Amino acid sequence: DQFTALVELEQALRVEGELAKHLEAYINLEEARLAQLRQLATEMDEHSRTVLSDPVKYLGNPVNAFLVVKRFTVDWPDAKQRLIHSRNTDDLDALQASMTSSFPSEDDYVGSIEALIRLQDTYALETHRIAEGKIPGVKVSPKMSAFDCFEMGRVMYNEGDQYHTILWMQEALDQLAQEESKSVEEESVLDYLSYALYVQGNLRHARNITQRLLDLVPEHTRAQNNLNHYNQLIAKEEQEEGVRKKGDDGALKDAIMNDRFLNEEDQYRASPEFQTYEALCRGEDVVPVKDPHKLTCQYRFWHPMFYINPLREETASLEPWIAVYHQLMNDHEIERIKEMATPRLARATVHNSATGQLEHAKYRISKSGWLRDEEDPLIARISERCSALTNLSLTTVEELQVVNYGIGGQYEPHFDFSRRSEPTAFEKWRGNRILTVIYYMTDVEAGGATVFLDAGVKVYPEKGSAAVWHNLLPSGEGDMRTRHAACPVLTGSKWVANKWFHERDQEFRRPCELEK
Ligand SMILES: O=C(O)CCC(=O)C(=O)O
Ligand SMILES: [Fe+2]
User: Fold this and answer.
1) Among positive and negative, which fits the CA dihedral 346, 352, 357, 361?
2) Which end of the chain offers a freer environment for a tag, N or C, measured as fewer CB atoms within 10 Å?
3) DSSP string covering 102-156, please?
4) CB of 488 within 8 A of CB of 447?
């Protein structure tokens, strides 16, 4: 008991002074925390205000889209954990709980990074230009921080993609060199970079980077071990070959030029067809269009529906015949179709025969939904117009498929008709897909063209226009020249609506012929 000796109470008094000092320090820390929190709130508020003035335009920039998803999946949870300690968070928690379905998820985060990488590949964009926000079709754009670049690299690393890991970790280092307050630790970047270089077989560069890491953190045990390991491997290699391996002289350029398609899953992406697809998407004339001087534009009056307002037909290719009809759908129709389809949009899935599961298809990245004629006279009118335009019967036609492609959204090369060997071939009463009408319901600032790999045709989305072609030869066989794809959307959002006509009931309208 302290009351019996004043000496001890005196001690307590001194402790009280200490306590006050600690309390002061604690309050300072808390005030600093609250100041950070206030700044965050101000930033979020300002950001949301500027962005909401034109969200479609803002999100049309793939870097912005990535950064928004990152704010929800990385920055916000991190800030919450670091900065919010008090128990007065009921309101905040309730808000977040009520919004879980609209909060971007970890999947969205990885998806937005994969989309940026896809765009980088297809459109041959330099890493540095993406990080600087310099993307075709975009006027003002944010810069990516070293941490953003690091995150790109980290996700690629987790997917076993060394090629892109190296590109983005190198970019993270470059950005870091310019940053005043560092957004990521240099040693973390070096750690990933060196390991990716090693896995890719670029031992000398891996060694250089590991050395740089050790200069920063001499006591890094794993790095020390790695360095020894690399040195041994290099010594062994030099002994065996007496010379350095070609393409590995310790320079970064050689490292990233190594085969980027080691990954087996990416085999198709290394094929000539895929290369053609990507080149066409970039607008390169790799496949010459046949007889360009014979391609003309004309008005068509071939149905009473078009007597007063004729079709504006542009022939894009004669063999196979591909035409574009301008101003075929008006703004009111487009808005109504988007509005009706929006609540139904679901990610395209494919059936995996090995697992029996429905999976998201990598080759087709978009959301789609179907609209029936009976739902609205406007939808029925669209069908009638397609029938008048193509002179085909509607009895076997599919419903209207509405598709929205987001950042990096695409549909890799395919045919619209089904091959006999395919188990999901169409029902007997309907037959195969004889003709495609694809309506474009948005302009797309950059990317998003429909390209035909054999015909060399590139159709750029133009709001209200439609492309039309026959998928089947008069013999009923699939026309292999109709192979086509939807290029990844680089900037903007792409909406299309597909109408597929089928073989049956067209016997007198598009009769089969003896010749192919
Ligand atoms: O969206 C495009 O440009 C093409 C879509 C397509 O080919 C399809 O849905 O079958
Ligand atoms: Fe298609």
Assistant:
1) negative
2) N
3) GS--HHHHHHHHHHHHHHHHHTT--HHHHHTT--TT-SS-PPPPHHHHHHHHHHH
4) yes
- Which CATH number describes the domain made up of 15-264? 1.25.40.10
User: Is the beta carbon of 402 within 6 A of some atom in ligand 1?
Assistant: no
Cβ–ligand 1 contact at 450 (below 6 Å): yes
Asked if residue 175 has its Cβ within 6 Å of ligand 1, the reply is no
Q: Which-ligand-closest: CA of 403?
A: 1
Residue nearest to atom 7 of ligand 1 (CA): 485
- Would the CB of 364 count as within 6 Å of ligand 1? no
pLDDT digit string, tens, across residues 44-58: 888 888 888 888 888
CATH architecture assignment, domain 271-502: Sandwich (2.60)
Domain ranges of the chain: 15-264, 271-502
Q: Is the CB of 439 under 6 A from ligand 1?
A: no
Could you identify the atom of ligand 1 that is nearest to the CA of residue 416? 10
pLDDT in tens, 354-407: 777 777 777 888 999 999 999 999 999 999 999 999 999 999 999 999 999 988
Q: Is the pTM of this model over 0.90?
A: no
CA distance 400 to 348: 15
How far apart are alpha carbons 269 and 272 in whole angstroms?
8
* SS3 call for 47: helix
Residue 483 CA to ligand 2 center (angstroms) comes to: 8
